[in-house]
Task: inverse folding
């Protein structure tokens, strides 16, 4: 027979269950702004029923025994998670490319009068002015200062690009350390999650932290993420394991002869610090990680591939701009000097041209195509010391009787130097200096526009996917307030039911059988 005391247990279960539900709601409200938090909801089910016996052993059915929370469900859209992690590497890649390209555009400062093209045009204009006043020291001084400005601009731009490349190189090492730190945290969480799952508990908050780490990692590298049956996650990179269970595999960097880092698997044993051991038959090329996307890949491509790297490069961005600067500086130095050496300066006293260089070639191998011309470009010491050494004359005036040159004041050579602007440069592949630099600036502009467009498109896509995920996982304070009221009323009703059962038991225990005493 059902006992009246059974009602106490039903009421107790109702109070405890709805009190726990209020606690879950409070946990949701407290974490409404916590990054990566997923809304949790109680899953109710009835407790095991009681088969009661009626009069004459007739069984009327099963009596319910109350309610319990069978699980605390973590609201998560696995499909949205997968899509976000598939698209995050591309967003990270294009974001880094956009940042670097915008910086290069600032360094180039084109098209402005302060940019390289404007400074070079200033030199051609100064030569043109010298054609009209070849004997003016003031005009010659302008030519010299414009030449100094050209050299300084090349030097400064090249230094800025070199510093930018070094900064990116440092960022690459920092990103590798960030990946290693994230992988270690994932491995630690794997261990904790496995332990709790084995014990039958639901590690919801740990899973939130794990998902947040995976989201962050997917922006850094193009990782492949696989969830295992025990709740842990396996992370692969380029087909090799980065995290497997509670064991992470560290990434490392190896500098080339210029100090540029290659990203490799760190096979360094703890007993041999400072060395990288490559077990046979592996070689250094086998150790290199095959990255395809992500912030780290964007940094590598923008900086340029290191020596000995097997990693392909789509752009080789900064080295490409630096090479263009060197080619342009070489063409200007060689072509200006070649014509300048054929002219006569005001200090000339003979029949032969002075043979002075306008830009210095001291210590430079003019046949070396790998020389950093933009870095070493400077004015010749003879020009810096005396502007009258500028060879503006081409055909000096001669004495009618002796035929000796008596005036070196014509501007024929200055005109030839001014016409370099419109002449095809053999050193640049039969294009003018102006067209060559204009094409390089345009290429950078096109790449910058493409990177901005791709980054914006990926941002829109990720925002859409994140909004869809938040519609499932996000905490709505309005919804939680509704749940709070619902659970509160249920708690109050269960407590009131306990009071009613208590009064019934009091009637039986303390009042039954005392009537008429």
Result:
């Amino acid at each position: 027979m059902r006992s009246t005391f059974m009602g106490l247990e039903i009421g107790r279960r109702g109070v405890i269950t709805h009190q726990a539900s209020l606690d879950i709601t409070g946990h949701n409200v407290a974490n409404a702004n916590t990054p990566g938090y997923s809304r949790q909801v109680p899953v109710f089910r009835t407790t095991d029923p009681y088969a009661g016996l009626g009069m004459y052993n007739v069984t009327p059915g099963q009596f319910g025994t109350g309610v319990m929370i069978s699980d605390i469900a973590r609201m998560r859209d696995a499909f949205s998670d997968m899509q976000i992690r598939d698209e995050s590497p591309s967003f990270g890649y294009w974001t880094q490319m956009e940042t670097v390209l915008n910086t290069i555009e600032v360094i180039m400062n084109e098209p402005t009068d302060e940019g390289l093209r404007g400074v070079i045009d200033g030199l051609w204009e100064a030569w043109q002015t010298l054609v009209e006043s070849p004997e003016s020291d003031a005009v010659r001084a302008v030519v010299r200062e414009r030449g100094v400005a050209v050299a300084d601009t090349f030097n400064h731009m090249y230094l800025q690009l070199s510093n930018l490349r070094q900064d990116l190189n440092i960022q690459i090492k920092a990103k590798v350390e960030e990946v290693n730190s994230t992988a270690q945290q994932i491995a630690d969480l794997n261990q904790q999650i496995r332990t709790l799952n084995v014990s039958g508990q639901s590690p919801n908050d740990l899973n939130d932290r794990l998902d947040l780490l995976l989201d962050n990692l997917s922006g850094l590298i193009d990782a492949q993420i696989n969830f295992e049956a025990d709740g842990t996650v396996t992370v692969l990179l380029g087909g090799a394991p980065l995290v497997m269970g509670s064991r992470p595999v560290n990434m490392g960097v190896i500098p080339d002869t210029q100090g540029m880092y290659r990203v490799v698997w760190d096979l360094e044993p703890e007993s041999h610090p400072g060395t990288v051991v490559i077990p046979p038959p592996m070689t250094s090329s086998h150790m290199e990680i095959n990255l395809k996307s992500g912030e780290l890949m964007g940094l590598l491509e923008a900086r340029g591939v290191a020596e000995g790297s097997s990693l392909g490069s789509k752009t080789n961005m900064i080295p490409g701009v630096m090479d263009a600067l060197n080619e342009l500086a070489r063409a200007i130095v060689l072509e200006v000097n070649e014509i300048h050496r054929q002219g006569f300066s005001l200090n000339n006293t003979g029949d032969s041209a002075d043979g002075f260089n306008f830009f210095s070639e001291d210590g430079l191998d003019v046949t070396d195509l790998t020389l950093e011309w933009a870095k070493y470009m400077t004015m010749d010491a003879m020009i810096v010391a005396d502007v009258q050494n500028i060879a503006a004359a081409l055909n000096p005036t001669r004495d009618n009787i002796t035929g000796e040159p008596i005036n070196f004041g014509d501007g024929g050579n200055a005109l030839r130097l001014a016409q370099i602007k419109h002449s095809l440069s053999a050193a640049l592949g039969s294009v003018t200096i102006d067209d060559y630099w204009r094409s390089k600036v345009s290429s950078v502009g096109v790449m910058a526009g493409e990177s901005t467009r791709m980054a914006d498109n990926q941002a829109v896509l990720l925002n859409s996917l994140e909004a869809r995920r938040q519609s499932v996982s996000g905490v709505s304070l309005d919804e939680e307030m509704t749940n709070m009221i619902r659970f509160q009323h249920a708690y109050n009703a269960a407590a009131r039911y306990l009071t009613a059962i208590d009064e019934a038991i009091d009637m039986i225990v303390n009042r039954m059988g005392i009537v008429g005493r």
About this structure: Residues 269-286 have pLDDT under 50 and may be disordered.
